[in-house]
UniProtKB/TrEMBL annotation:
GO terms for biological process: glutathione metabolic process. It comes from Podila verticillata NRRL 6337. The lineage of its organism: Eukaryota, Fungi, Fungi incertae sedis, Mucoromycota, Mortierellomycotina. Residues 105-240 form the GST C-terminal domain. This is Glutathione S-transferase. InterPro entries: Glutathione-S-Trfase_C-like, Glutathione-S-Trfase_C_sf, Glutathione_S-Trfase, Glutathione_S-Trfase_N, GST_C, GST_superfamily, Thioredoxin-like_sf. Pfam families: GST_C_3.
Length: 242
């Protein structure tokens, strides 16, 4: 039998939930930013009511996840109806559909997904190597290699495209998309690893504009002042150094 999260009997319920604006959310993940960062960012920027949950019993929590990993998003309606979604990319795209972050038409959605894919590739295929390398000397060599062979080119390509779009803080048109969110998440990671002089208003003004535009959204800014966000940031710094 398929995992409960994949039961097609939920088809109508998913259609109902994605259209509702009165639901609340739980984001189940470690007490870090990590893979839950873009999920929490979207929820905060869109003014959704959500809580971050760190399981006390990891064995039980992993057992209910279809792949034994996190994050898991739970959306609950006032009448008690619930849906669960696993995997960051699936969660981000569901929330993108719910909150209108996938563009106005098929072309815009394709462009947004293209840049989202570019971001995910850099994080999951390249930067992941840095996170999993523990030897200090090997990590230092890898850090330089990743910048010269991957990050530098990502910065150049994305900066050029964003400038062509008017340096208005968005990848498509003049509204937020999942590409914007994923880029801000990636900028924060790159700056955490390489320092604050890699992405700056002077060096990469178009990328910087994406970051500052999102961070200026009142509901997002308010969330970054909460005890929950501060606790996650403190734990992130303790574990990862940034």
């Amino acid at each position: 039998m398929a995992h409960a999260y994949f039961n097609p009997d939920q088809t109508a319920l998913f259609g109902e939930m994605v259209a509702r604006k009165d639901t609340t959310f739980e984001v189940e993940y470690y007490g870090l930013h990590g893979l839950a960062s873009p999920v929490r960012t979207i929820l905060a920027a869109c003014g959704a009511a959500f809580t971050s949950v760190v399981p006390e019993d990891w064995a039980s929590a992993k057992a209910k996840s279809p792949f034994g990993v996190f994050p898991i998003l739970t959306e609950t309606a006032p009448d008690g109806k619930k849906i669960h979604i696993a995997e960051t990319d699936a969660i981000v795209r569901y929330l993108g559909r719910k909150y209108g972050l996938l563009g106005r038409n098929v072309f815009e959605e394709t462009v947004i997904n293209t840049f989202a894919s570019s971001n995910n590739h850099l994080l999951q295929r390249e930067l992941a190597k840095w996170f999993t390398t523990k030897d200090p000397e090997a990590r230092a060599v890898l850090k330089e290699k990743l910048f010269n062979e991957s990050i530098k080119h990502w910065l150049e390509f994305h900066e050029k495209y964003l400038r062509d779009n008017g340096s208005n803080g968005h990848y498509v048109g003049s509204t937020m998309s999942i590409a914007d969110v994923l880029t801000v998440n990636l900028i924060n990671i790159v700056v955490g690893i390489y320092g604050g002089d890699v992405v700056t208003e002077a060096k990469t003004p178009a990328l910087w504009k994406v970051k500052t535009t999102l961070e200026a959204i009142p509901s997002y800014a308010a969330w970054t002042q909460t005890e929950s966000f501060k606790a996650i940031s403190a734990r992130n710094k303790e574990v990862l150094g940034f």
